[in-house]
Amino acid sequence: MASDPKFLGNPLLKTQHFIGASRWHQVSETEITGRHQVRVPHQKYTDESRKTVAVKGHSHGSATMWYKKVEGVWKFAGLCPDIRWFEYDYDQVFADTKVHFNEADRVQDTQHH
């Protein structure tokens, strides 16, 4: 889902993730939970020249992230963002995504009934 062209894989979408105020809790020898403040600016451009911004929206909040040690190497194991507020037209950044994924959910639901 994240790399879908209608979501974060959209070549017209650019983001930056600013992470700070991190706190870490080692749950076990192989698991760590991190809690971070985040600010994530998003800009979607009108075309691949990236000269004109079509819509922008910046989200602010926190994220809980899980890390797991696999064969001696720490790996990313999960993410739970908690968006508290946003600037500009954040709800429009992924507007076509909502339709795209909701349609896929409806098709999947009708196939199961």
If you had to describe this structure to a student in words, what would you say it looks like?
The protein is of the alpha+beta class and 113 residues long. The protein has one domain: Roll (Nuclear Transport Factor 2, Chain: A), CATH 3.10.450. It has 2 helices and 5 strands, in the order βββββαα. The chain is elongated. The model is unreliable at 109-113 (pLDDT under 50).
Mean pLDDT rating = 85
Query: Ranges with pLDDT <50 over ≥5 residues?
Result: 109-113
Q: How many independent structural domains?
A: 1
Distance between the first and last residues' Cα: 24 Å
**H/E topology pattern:** EEEEEHH
- Assembly level: single chain
Q: State the major sheet.
A: 5 strands, antiparallel
- Percent strand equals over 45%
CATH topology: Nuclear Transport Factor 2, Chain: A
Total E-strand runs? 5
Number of helices: 2
Radius of gyration: 17 Å
Family: Belongs to the scytalone dehydratase family.
InterPro entries: NTF2-like_dom_sf, Scytalone_dh
Protein name: Scytalone dehydratase
Keywords: Lyase
